[in-house]
Structures are given as C-alpha cells and as structure tokens.
Amino acid sequence: MADGGSRSGADAEADDGPVYASAVEGRQYRGTWYCPLPYEDLERAPETDDYPDRGTGGTFRLAELPRVPRVRHVVGPSAIMLGASLGSGETLFWPGLIARHGWVIYWAFVVGVLTQFVVNTELQRWTLATGESVFRSYVRVNRAWPWVFLVAGLLSLGWPGWAAGAAQVAATATGLAGTTLLGLPAWKPFAVGLLLVVWLSYQVSSVAYNAVEALQIGLLFVAIAAALALAVVSGAVAEVGSLSSAVTGVGTLPPEMDVAVFLGGLAFAGAGGYLNLSQSLWAREKGYGMGNYQGRVRNPLTGDDPEPIRRDGFTFRPTPLHLRRWRGWWRVVQAEHLLTFVVGLLLVATVLMAVARRHAPGADANALDMWLGAIAPALGGLGALLVFLLLFVALFTTEYAIVESFVRNSADAVYEAFARDAGWDLSRLFWWLLTAFTVWGVVVILLFSAPLGSRGPFFLLVVGAALSGVMMWPYTVLTLLVNTRRLPEHLQPGWSRIVAMWWASGFYGYFSVLLIGQTATAAGADAFGTAVGVAGSAPGGYALWVGYALVQGYAVALSVGAKRAAAGTVAAER
Q: What confidence score (pLDDT) does residue 301 get?
C-alpha cells in the first residue's frame, strides 16, 4: 500500500510504456492506493462535449488518467462482492430453489449473474471516469436520490438475517440448537458475538477497506475449498450431468413458484440490491482510474489525518494516449469482475445446487433447515462437518460484507446529500454509522421473537432479498441515464451495453411489479393484483404495468437520444 506521492520512482525502476503500469507501480494497487494532487492548482475542465456534464454540481479538475495495472494487481472489489454473495444466492436461495423445483429454473440463475455483471461494471464507469462515487453522480441529477436508496437499503439490509443464520448453524453444529444460553435461545448470543467480531475487525487497520478485503479474500478461499470438497464427498459431481435439462426450461417458471422468493433469488444471483452500489465505492477506495486521486476512508481512532474526498472529481483530456488508457482500464475492470465474481458464482453455486438436488430433492423447508435438517444428517461424518463449515463461513462472510456495504454506502449517501455541506468528516461518519448499525443489529436479534413471532432467521433473508430485487430497478435505470446523458462520447457505454442495461431494468422492473401486485393481493388489496402474463391483472394491476412501461420507455428514449446526440462530438486531442 502507498499513501500517495509521485510515480516517478516506480517508473524509473521498470517501465511498461505509456499505457500500462510497470510491475512495481502495479503492485501499489494491492491494498489501496491514494495519490494526492494539488487540487486547487489544477485546471478546471471546460464545459464542452469533451468532458462530463456537471449537472447540478461543480466543475471537474483536469488530471492525467493513471496508467493501467494488470488484473492481478487490482483484484479486491469483486472478491468482496463474491463474498457478499456466498451466503445468499450461492448457499441459500438457489440451492433451495433447485432442490425444490429442479434444474428447469437454472437458466434464471445464469441470467441473473450475467445481468449483474453488466450492472455492476456500469456502476463503476462514473467512478473510473471521474473519481466520484455513484452517489455523487446521483446528487448531480437530484439531491433526493441518495436518500431514496438509503431508505431502501435500510429496509432491505437492516435485518441481520445472515448473522442470525450463521449463528443458527453454529448452534446446530455444537449441539446447542433448541437450547438456551445466557437465558436466550442459543443462536442469539452467537449472532451478537459475530456482529461484535465484525465491528472489532475494523479497528485493526488505519484504512477500513484494507481490513475488509484481506478478511473477505481469506474467507473466500476457505468457503470455495469447502464447497469443492463437499461436492466430492457427497457424490454430487454426478448430478451436474442433469444440467442439460436446464435448457428445456429457459424462460419458464414452475406454476407453484413464489414470486417473492424468486425475485429474491434473482437479486441474489450475485450480491444484489443495495450491496451492488458498493462496487463504485470499493473501486474508488482501491484507486481505480481517476479514483486514484480521491482519499480513502480511514479509521479515526488511529489518529491519522483524514484524506480529502473532493466534492467535484477529476477528468482527463481526450488525447490518444488517454483514450488508450481508458480502454485498458475498462478491460481490466471487466476482467476483474468476470474472473472473480462471475466465474466464482457460476462454479461454487452450481456445485452447491448439485449437492442440494442430489440429497434433498423436492425439499419444501427453508434453505437453512434443508442444509441442517436434511443434507447434513444424510451425509454424516466428514460431509456433515463440511456442510457446517461451509454454511457458517458463507453466512458470516455475507454478514460481514453486508455490514461493510450498508455502512459504506450509507455514509457516502449521507455525506454527499447533506453531511459534506454541514462540515462533517466522512471517516468519522463511517465509524459512527458502523457502530450504530452494529448496535441496531444486536437489538433486532435480541428482540427477534417479539415482532416476528415464531418465524426463523430465514424469514429475514427472504424479506431482505425481495426488497433488494425491487430496489435494483430504479438504480439500474438511473445509472443508465447518468452514463449516457452525463458522460462524453468516449466515456459512454457502447450500444451493446446500453441494450443490456435496457434488459436489466426491464428484467428487475417486471418481477418488481409482479411482487408489488402479489403483496397487495396478500394484504387484501385485490384491485392491484398482477398476472405473470399481464393479461388477467386487476384494474390497479394494469395501472402498475402501465407505469412500468412508461418508465422503461422513458429510459430507452433518453438513453437513445443521449447516445445519438453525442455521436461524433469528441475528436481526440493531439
């Protein structure tokens, strides 16, 4: 890790040319890298078609786009995102769905993962180009947007379901399930302890992100090794041959499929919901692109001076060299996410689905009970031990990532929408939110049985997952509009990516409307019922579908208009 300074020392030792960073320079990205610049002395970017549209914000400062490191030097953000996925889509939702319904719905998992790949990389585009977070880009559109996503994030992630789930696994593995500990159900003290471990882990590093990345990558190795070992021990490798049946089910859903659970599965075919927005912030912390010039969130308890995170970020002149570097950075960002997030998800989740389908076919219990009550006893011995280890590590890893993601997103959202103008320090705001969120999680766990009756930890997971799926619709649309309407031609997504974002917003929007209609019907508002094929919906349901069509049409029209308007407006400077 380097805290800043000139690149000349690294360049002198080994130079890979004007586009790609030397090996020495590239290694600076392991951990995080912040390179401070004399901000007030930098030239302001002209308000022309060559530079990002400032919207309601201030002007950008001109700086050099850093040279492009190798993929192996910048692995981190997507590894944390994969860790966030381990305890949701990979071990709970999708293995449970495949065990119950078979491989005919596997297509939806693959589609969900690939869709999130596009959305997650597009969430990094603005940060890569300007050094600003995705929340700052939303403020440049309207100051209300960060508050909208903050509230949605609290509703979807404010329930410590993964800590509760990991604690249930620990209680079962130690033979304490169904017993009391300190006067409470045994899983509750375990869950509280796990949240406290997460809080304490942030105190061991002066840069908050570094502690998260190191621990998450370590836990990932344990979880992946346990999953592969379980596939061999359980004999589930043979089940993978049944994947061919997935082809026949493309585009269809079993009639008995619960929309809330399915939407949760789509959201968590990956991390999902509020978690995905962290991809932008982790890219800035890591030092991707122009984010290299923005400060990092530091631990205020270490006494280090805070690093400035500028209100108005940076941009670069569209010279041939910078355009080559930009294309190099974009390839690296996509490769890091593809090789870490996508490949990791498809590999590990498919193995776990095979285990679940082989040893718990037709299971109608929730996923935690399926693993603990059916699969682990059926395997016994080493197999049961691997199940306990994998579930505990996966759920704890996800809870850790959720705490990190929620706190980092919320701190940045509050900071950009209000706290910056109020003179607050982002690092202190992060620390106080981390503490408050930990305390909140402890309170929810201790009072769990009162508001939710006899419902177990998995209920919290379904609630959070469904809300996450609904949340992904508006921010996918907003990100598409920011990246097409605010960025100049050479930084905009290409047509194939724009079409993919249309698909993503339509995909999440469609299932969100279905869920809203189903929820309304369950609450007694039958007039807002929605049908899968649209036809047959109630009058209010048709109104929901019309609103959905209007939003989609609006997004398509504006993005097409922005792309056409920008065509041919930027000529590379010499």
A: 82
Least confident of 138-142, 177-181, 504-508: 177-181
Rg (CA), the chain: 24
Tokens of 129: 């180009």
Show the CA angle centred on residue 231, arms to residues 241 and 258, nearest 5°. 70
Per-residue pLDDT for 133 more than 60?
Answer: yes
Residue keyed to tokens 């997030």 = 341
292 near 37, Cβ under 8 Å? Answer: no
Q: Residue 25: exposed, middle, or buried by beta-carbon count in 10 A (0-12, 13-18, 19+)?
A: buried
Answer for the pair 467, 273: CB distance below 8 angstroms, yes or no: yes
Taking residues 294-303, what's their average pLDDT?
Answer: 85
Q: What distance in Å separates the CA atoms of residue 401 and residue 37, rounded to the nearest whole number?
A: 31
Q: Helices (DSSP H) in 28-160: which residue ranges?
A: 71-74, 77-85, 94-101, 106-130, 134-139, 145-157
Cα torsion at 504, 506, 509, 510 (round to 10°)?
A: -120
Concatenate the DSSP letters of all residues of 210-222 into one string: HHHHHHHHHHHHH
Return the amino acid letter for 134: V
Q: How far apart are CA 364 and CA 386, in angstroms?
A: 22
Amino acid at position 79, single letter:
A
Distance CA 505, CA 535 (A): 21
8 Å CB contact between 104 and 248: yes
The alpha-helical segments, DSSP class H, found in 242-369 are 259-267, 278-286, 320-337, 343-359, 367-369
Give the per-residue pLDDT at 504.
93
Termini Cα distance of the chain: 34
CA separation for the pair 459, 457 (Å, rounded): 5
Q: Which residues contact 276 (CB under 8 A, 6 or more apart)?
A: 81, 116, 119, 120, 123, 270, 472, 475
Kindly report, residue by residue over 28-74, the tens digit of the pLDDT.
888 788 999 999 999 999 999 999 999 888 999 999 999 999 999 99
Q: How much is the average pLDDT of 258-287?
A: 80
| Cβ-based burial of 328 (10 A; exposed 0-12, middle 13-18, buried ≥19) | middle
pLDDT band at 12 (very low <50, low <70, confident <90, very high): very low
The band of 280, judged by pLDDT with boundaries at 50, 70 and 90, is very high
- Which of 196, 251, 197, 269 is closest to 439 using CA atoms? 196
pLDDT value of position 192: 85
Q: Is the pLDDT of residue 109 over 70?
A: yes
Alpha-carbon span 409 to 81, nearest angstrom: 14
Average the pLDDT over 439-454 and give the result: 65
SS (H, E, C) 229-260: HHHHHHCHHHHHHHHHHHHHHCCCCCCCCCHH
